[in-house]
Amino acid sequence: MAAVFTRLRASALAHKSLFAGQARLASTRPSAAGSAATNLNGSGPVYSVMAGAGLGLGAFYYAYFNGFLPEHSVAKGRLGLSPLAKDVSVVFVLGGPGAGKGTQCARIVEEFGFVHLSAGDLLRAERQRAGSPYGELINNYIKEGQIVPMEITIALLHQAMKESGSKRFLIDGFPRALDQAQCFEDEVCKSQFTLYFDCPDEEMLRRLLKRGESSGRVDDNIESIKKRFVTFHETSYPVVEYYSKMNKVKTVSCLNPVDKVYEQTRSHFLHL
Q1: Where are the alpha helices (DSSP H) in the chain?
Q2: Whether 178 contacts 184, CB under 8 Å
Q3: From CA 121, how far away is CA 11, in angstroms rounded?
Q4: pLDDT tens for each residue of 58-97
Q5: What is the pTM of this model?
Q6: CA distances from residue 22 to 46, 49, 67, 134 in whole angstroms, order as listed
Q7: Domain residue limits, the chain
Q8: Pairing of strands 115-118, 193-198
Q9: Low-confidence residues of the chain, pLDDT below 70?
Q10: CB 231 within 8 A of CB 145
């Protein structure tokens, strides 16, 4: 057991050292080269994120496929996740940042007994976990408003589902891209439907700036918020369109008062 922890610690330290070195190297590159790599809204270089992506995934796969992460088992698919019960029920909850997903999920949990899993909360917790080899990588992706590599997010969700002991889940803020949706359904389980909270950007911006006054979150600032909007429209909304073609989307407008929004929301769970 001591040898396993020694190997895991060595892997994490190596990742941290490599990430820091690559980030320093990127910061010294000429501006002409830097112009080739920009974030989603074209506002500047993202070498630190790009450098961390490959190194972070390398550390992830090393730890995961050597059995260092919880719930590792003989591979059932390309991520090697152990199977869930066949009667597990999953509802994806999507909407732009600040649409009110968390508020509505809390009420569904209270009335219908679902377990609420927020992909964002799991990533933030992992980022802050002492000794995590992915903390710096996750932090950089979140600050840039970009999507954390799905292998990390799906493994964290799968682990939380297994540990909960429940069979009914609301998965909030996921999938954030089409490949995440397809990978989750191939590797973990099929979704029942996608609950989509429709809210205009102007209203979401107002809510997020208000929340940022007290939240302490690194992404509750005007620059990160704008990047998150771009990411949502360009990569996350296509997930809604994908499931809409399969008649698996329930849309709720977020412009009504909270109680009215919940009346419409709960109607989609009465026969589950």
Answers
A1: 2-27, 31-34, 47-65, 101-112, 119-128, 135-143, 150-164, 178-187, 201-212, 222-231, 237-244, 258-266
A2: no
A3: 25
A4: 444 444 444 444 443 333 467 888 889 889 999 999 999 8
A5: 0.67
A6: 12, 10, 27, 15
A7: 2-65, 89-266
A8: unpaired
A9: 1-77, 218
A10: yes
User: Residue 19's pLDDT is what?
Assistant: 38
- Superfamily of chain region 89-266: P-loop containing nucleotide triphosphate hydrolases (3.40.50.300)
Cβ distance 199 to 254 under 8 Å?
A: yes
Residue pair 226/167 in contact by the 8 Å Cβ criterion: no
Contact of 39 with 227, CB cutoff 8 Å: yes
CA 148 to chain centre: 6
Q: Give phi and psi for 196, each to the nearest 5.
A: -110, 120
DSSP helix/strand/coil, 45:
strand
Q: Which of 227, 51, 95 shows the shortest CA–CA distance to 219?
A: 227
CA distance 189 to 66: 24
Return d(Cα 167, Cα 10) in angstroms, integer: 37
